[in-house]
Design a protein that fits this description.
This protein is α+β, with helices and mostly antiparallel strands. Strands 1, 2, 3, 4, 5, 6, 7 and 8 form an 8-stranded antiparallel beta sheet that branches.
């Protein structure tokens, strides 16, 4: 990263940005050509041997270009941003953009077990504002809808953030 003064390496700060982001831009390779698509997403942070691990989930149709690209090459990249604001001045080239963003790399897996798929959908629903009713511990999904929905998990292998704030 060229602007080291804007780089974010702290995992918790990166997760904070992710928590405030609503759309994830997924980058794939489809038939040897770059392909980028915006998706709704959710995520789960877990810990393995005192190391924090991030899994990002998204869903979509069980067929189509996105799913075929993942089958062809499961290595993906993604980015998301929060808090973007452009400020201008009277002089050209004196404008700037304030932002917080993350870029990640990982391996995408199309999930097959109903338990893993429900876990991924739970992450997506909760990230996007779904509130579990009081006393309820799991989200109930329509079996027919669940059967038609592809759920994909990205096991994140590398992630970094960047921030340019007004302060």
């Amino acid at each position: 990263m060229r602007r080291k003064d804007r780089e974010i390496k702290d995992f918790d700060k990166i997760i904070d940005i992710l928590s405030r982001s609503k759309i994830l831009h997924l980058a794939l390779i489809s038939e040897g050509t770059p392909y980028s698509v915006p998706v709704n997403f959710g995520y789960i942070v877990s810990e393995d041997n005192n190391c924090k691990k991030l899994s990002v989930y998204f869903h979509g149709a069980g067929e189509g270009k996105k799913i075929e690209a993942i089958r062809e090459n499961p290595i993906v990249s993604f980015c998301t941003e929060a808090c973007a604001d452009i400020s201008g001045f009277d002089t050209a080239c004196q404008w700037t953009c304030y932002y917080e963003s993350i870029i990640g790399l990982g391996t995408a897996t199309i999930l097959h077990s109903q338990k893993e798929r429900a876990q991924g959908l739970d992450a997506l629903m909760l990230h996007n504002g779904y509130k579990l009713p009081v006393g309820v511990k799991t989200i109930a999904y329509n079996v027919m809808s669940l059967a038609k929905t592809a759920v994909v998990r990205i096991d994140v292998t590398d992630i970094t953030g960047k921030c340019h704030s007004k302060m």
